[in-house]
Amino acid sequence: MFAPHATASGPLQAQGKIKTCTTPKPDACKLGVELEKKLSNGRYGVVASKYTGWVSCKARTLSVPYKCPQRLQKHTYKTVSSLQIEYKGRYGTKVVASSAMSTYC
Predict the structure, then answer these.
(1) Beta pairing partners, 4
(2) pLDDT of 81-90, one tens digit each?
(3) Disulfide-capable partner of 71 in 41, 45, 96, 104 (CB 3.0 to 4.6 Å)?
């Protein structure tokens, strides 16, 4: 199970967290987190991202900071996290998005 969120204290930051692992534990996991900004056409575009390689599965947090070019306009951001798992040669993927948040960035 994992949960994404964005924080605006200090530099804007997107985080993806693996809170717990399933039983039986997967053989390997790959966690990714993206910070997305809402564009003028209503769609979202990636402004920052970070991914782990295939690593052992355990509770972990992956963060990606984003330095705002200016703080004059209010923009809307969301975090999208993806978790891929491998178990006995089989793979699965789950993608979760946070709620959107607006901030001067």
Answers:
(1) 16
(2) 999 999 999 9
(3) 104
What pTM was computed for the model? 0.82
* Nearest one of 76, 16, 14 to 41, comparing CA atoms: 76
Alpha-carbon span 38 to 87, nearest angstrom? 35
Closest CA to 86 of 29, 19, 21, 25: 29
Is 80 strand, coil or helix?
Answer: strand
List all residues 6 or more positions away from 24 whose beta carbon is below 8 Å from its beta carbon: 87
What's the rounded Cα separation, in Å, for the pair 100 and 94?
Answer: 19
